[in-house]
Specification:
- The chain is α/β, with parallel strands linked by helices and 467 residues long.
- It is built from 14 helices and 14 strands.
- The protein has two domains: 155 residues, no CATH class; 266 residues, no CATH class.
- Helix 5 packs parallel to helix 6 and helix 9 packs antiparallel against helix 10.
- The longest helix is centred in the first third of the chain and has 42 residues.
Length: 467
């Protein structure tokens, strides 16, 4: 009996201690929120106009989009032509920045414009008509919505009459695959923590790295390695569903693809944020059992072209070569307005071996990352297009889109007796000759940063039996 009383006493004591710890944590959280509130309020310097509130309190990424003149989401552009729809916004049937940019960009413009102008108090994002939902488009939209909600919360803490928006909700799709994306890594998960479990889907939820918080170069490298390892381990776990694992070569290829994309996104982000997200879909049809891995990595800020075009670009030698190449294209009349412009050429050139906007003395071994991840992508999908007509990768930066599907592969040669890899998207294999306009092209809608979107099918030739 004594032992029982002692046990009950110990349990009660532990509960009391946990209660004290919990109370202390809540107190510290309240103190922190109060400090943030006071600091935020003070930042307005007495000017409480909506213009100043937006200027001072808008989160970094959305603030960049609203102020970037070239951006399709510049404040002056999104407040025009907002539809009269009582706050119900239909997601396009094909929501894809890569393949259906006009309707996809317009949809995002309308939602942002209506929210920022407080046109409606309640909003419904309706996916009922959407039958194709690309991961890149969805995560881009979710990041912007995340910033909008953060901005509204800051405003509510200071001035209760703003914002007027009281509710934002979503409607699912009639298409099962659209719903799978939405409820595994999409809006319900990111904004409401309402995820659904599907037997054939393994999600890799949104990963955000902020260099403002973790700006030390060593920590940045360490974080990139951690994120790469985490993502690769995730893919390997997914493949176990197929009773398979990647061959050693394919594993190296996948690690290279992910690692190089992450570090490129890290180094070229003006707003110092890098985002990555993905999911794995297990499929069984017509007697075949395989998997599809989708990945999107993006940043906001200067485009690839703008990085090199900047008068203060530290890699003067590379910029000089780009200018010389532009002169050759101009003489040969290769540039065509809104079809193939200098931006497209420079963006393509930036993918070549040894090309980087980073100062050579800063990263002497950098400059082959882009060509490495392109090569690794081809190694995973097979070098012949007929081997895999499903896997595809796209780069969208500013007004340039570059597509990789295996039609054109990487070439190898020597420059000054050093091995060199290049990709020209033409039959001659020369960067001086115009690339195929089907794969390297100017697009009307401007993406304010760079997004890399990949869809990779894991066929039997990519896999070995699990050991």
């Amino acid at each position: 009996m004594k032992n029982k009383k002692q046990i009950e006493k110990n349990i009660a004591l532990k509960k009391f201690r946990r209660k004290l710890v919990s109370r202390d944590k809540k107190k510290k959280k309240r103190q922190l929120l109060q400090k943030i509130y006071l600091d935020t309020k003070q930042s307005l310097e007495g000017d409480t106009s909506i213009e100043n509130v937006i200027d001072k309190w808008m989160p970094t990424n959305l603030a960049y989009l609203l102020s970037c003149e070239q951006s399709d989401f510049h404040l002056s552009k999104i407040v025009k032509g907002i539809p009269e729809n009582n706050g119900v916004f239909l997601v396009p049937k094909n929501f894809s920045l890569i393949d259906y940019p006009e309707e996809s960009f317009k949809f995002i413009q309308n939602v942002l414009g209506a929210l920022l102008t407080q046109k409606y108090s309640e909003y419904r994002i309706d996916y009922s008509q959407c039958t194709r939902l690309d991961l890149g488009a969805q995560v881009f939209f979710d990041i912007l919505m995340k910033d909008i909600l953060k901005f509204f919360n800051r405003c509510r803490r200071y001035k209760k009459t703003f914002p007027r928006v009281t509710n934002i909700k979503g409607t699912g799709s009639k298409d099962v695959n659209v719903d799978k994306l939405l409820y595994s890594v999409g809006s319900p998960v990111i904004h409401s923590n309402k995820s659904r479990k599907y037997p054939d889907i393994v999600p890799y939820e949104l990963c955000i790295h902020d260099r403002e918080v973790n700006g030390d170069p060593v920590k940045i490298r360490e974080q990139k390695d951690l994120d790469t390892t985490k993502l690769v381990d995730y893919v390997l776990e997914c493949l176990k569903r197929l009773g398979r694992t990647l061959t050693t070569d394919k594993l190296d290829d996948l690690s290279t693809v992910i690692g190089e994309i992450l570090i490129n996104a890290e180094e070229h982000s003006t707003t110092k944020h890098r985002f990555s997200i993905g999911y794995f879909h297990e499929i069984t049809e017509e007697g075949k059992h395989y998997g599809v891995f989708r990945l999107a990595i993006l940043n906001f800020g200067k485009t690839i072209y703008e990085k090199f075009k900047d008068p203060n670009c530290p890699n003067i030698e590379v910029v000089s070569k780009m200018k010389s190449l532009s002169d050759q294209y101009t003489k040969r009349k290769y540039f065509v307005y809104k079809a193939f412009e200098e931006e497209s050429l420079w963006t393509l050139y930036a993918l070549q071996d040894g090309v980087t906007s980073i100062a050579p003395e800063r990263y002497k071994k950098r400059g082959n990352g882009s060509i490495q991840f392109i090569e690794s992508f081809f190694n995973i999908k097979g070098n012949k297009k007929n081997d895999d007509d499903f896997s595809i990768m796209a780069i969208l930066s500013g007004n340039t889109k570059i597509l990789f599907d295996g039609t054109y592969n990487i070439s190898k040669g020597y420059v000054n007796n050093e091995p060199y890899k290049f990709m020209t998207f033409n039959d001659s294999g020369k960067i001086e000759d115009k690339p195929d306009s089907k794969f390297v092209k100017h697009v009307d809608n401007y993406f304010p940063g760079t997004i890399i979107s990949a869809k990779i099918m894991f066929n039997e030739d990519d896999l070995t039996d699990e050991i």
